[in-house]
Specification:
The chain is of the alpha+beta class. Helix content is 32%, strand content 28%.
Length: 451
């Protein structure tokens, strides 16, 4: 087992990893930017190293400084968390080159799944259903129009290096294709330095459902069933739940087996997520693989009792996977609490938290790194907490989530708590009837105030 792990991340996920390491008797090293000097992950780690200025490029994305921090502290492994360098193949390879274990996917696996067009080709070979579309990247506008006419409109063009909805356009007919093509390429080039595009059939009334997988790097794998991540705003998840309200036992089993086939085919090691779109007809299609632990992993932990971070560390140390294919018998839901103003188009709301009261009670878990007096910096992702509740039914979970949201008090900054509270009262949400477009027509006015 590892003696010391450096956490190449910040915020609640850094704290999450530190806590697990402490339970396992493993020393930890926190790295931090100047802006995060007063962060809890710095205080709770056994050692801490400042790696640069506030900007991510100068700190949490600076590979040489992170490797140097690992070397001077004699860390024998690095856990990247999620975001930042967690899916960076170069970082994974450099860790291996320096004899430091990267607790995550191999460079080969990250490369295989990191490019969406390449990932789709791998999934076809693995026998996993994929959305009909172009064979790899599109070479020209004319090729895109030809493919669209072959598979039928509507179609969606996507940036191969994209994420968060950038470099993506839905096209309903030939007449609007050129403008969408030009806009998507321009946006992708500006955001990612890459304007390569591919095309897929647009899935009607889609649900976003993902399968949590674990691989041993030798073709062995297990899955821990699904998470429904359909409630999104501009392709950013806001609420996740398990089990999904729309999956039948048969569909759950079929998707689980497809996810296992994908994981085994690329000899994947550690925690990963196979993300699918499920259409109104109950057909599912591979969308992408996230080669890291997910923000929403706690709901899987709550319904399985499977500590995903601990299993990541054990698998990286060569200990056989202790998990098994699991179908949840309980229900769990996670609301992402962001420092944003939902009444003003979710505008970020950095600043000082003047008052904080975290909810508790049976079936309630809060993962957060903030405290009263903490100053939320404007340089990073605006998520400041995850509220997770568990129950024996979806109805019980929603009632418990309402109660927990009412107890959750954060003053000094705007948060998404009022949005979540109103969502829990929405009739369609309570029925489990919604698609990824649900929030496009959601009424963000008259949001309730916390108690």
């Amino acid at each position: 087992m590892f003696k010391k792990i450096l956490i190449a991340n910040r915020g609640e996920i850094a704290l999450r990893i530190i806590r697990t390491c402490r339970e396992m008797g493993i020393k930890t090293v926190a790295v931090y930017s100047v802006a995060d000097k007063e962060s809890l992950h710095v205080r709770f780690a056994d050692e801490a190293v400042c790696i640069g200025a506030a900007s991510s490029a100068d700190s949490y994305l600076n590979i040489p400084r992170i490797i140097a921090a690992a070397e001077i502290t004699n860390a024998d492994a690095i856990h990247p968390g999620y975001g930042f360098l967690s899916e960076n193949a170069e970082f994974s390879a450099i860790c291996e080159e320096y004899g430091i274990k990267f607790i995550g996917a191999s460079a080969d696996a990250i490369n295989a799944m990191g490019d969406k067009a390449t990932a789709k080709d791998y999934m076809k070979k693995a026998g996993v259903p994929v959305v009909p579309g172009s064979q790899g990247l599109l070479s020209s506008l004319d090729e895109g129009i030809k493919v669209a006419e072959e598979i039928g409109y509507p179609v969606i063009i996507k940036a191969t290096a994209g994420g968060g909805g950038r470099g993506m356009r839905i096209i309903n007919n030939k007449e609007t294709f050129k403008k969408a093509w030009d806009d998507a390429r321009r946006e992708s080039k500006a955001a990612f330095g890459n304007d390569a595009m591919y095309l897929e059939k647009f899935v009607v009334e889609p649900r976003h459902v993902e399968i949590q997988v674990f691989g041993d790097g030798k073709g062995g794998a297990c899955h821990l069933s699904e998470r429904d991540c359909t409630i999104q705003r501009r392709h950013q998840k806001l609420v996740e739940e398990t089990p999904s309200p729309v999956l039948t036992t048969e569909l759950r089993d079929e998707m689980g087996q497809a996810a296992l086939a994908a994981t085994a085919f690329i000899n994947y090691e550690g925690a990963g997520t196979i993300e699918f779109l499920v259409d109104k007809f109950g057909k599912f299609y591979f969308m992408e693989m996230n080669t890291r632990i997910q923000v929403e992993h706690p709901i899987t932990e709550e319904v399985t009792g499977f500590d995903l971070v601990k299993e990541q560390i054990k698998t990286a140390a060569g200990i056989p996977i202790s998990g098994r294919n699991y179908y949840p018998k309980k229900y769990a839901m996670e609301c992402r609490i962001n420092a944003e103003d939902p009444a003003k188009d979710f505008r970020p709301s950095p600043g000082k938290i003047t008052q904080l009261h975290v909810p508790g009670g049976h079936g309630v878990r809060v993962d957060t790194h903030v405290y009263a007096g903490y100053v939320i910096p404007p340089f990073y992702d605006s998520m400041i907490a995850k509220l997770i509740v568990t129950g024996q039914s979806r109805e019980e979970v929603i009632v418990r989530m309402k109660r927990a949201l009412d107890e959750f008090v954060i003053e000094g900054v705007k948060t998404t708590i009022p949005f979540h509270r109103k969502l829990m009262d929405d009739e369609q949400f309570n029925k489990g009837i919604f698609t990824t477009k649900f929030l496009e027509t959601f009424d963000f006015s008259d949001l309730p105030k916390s108690i």
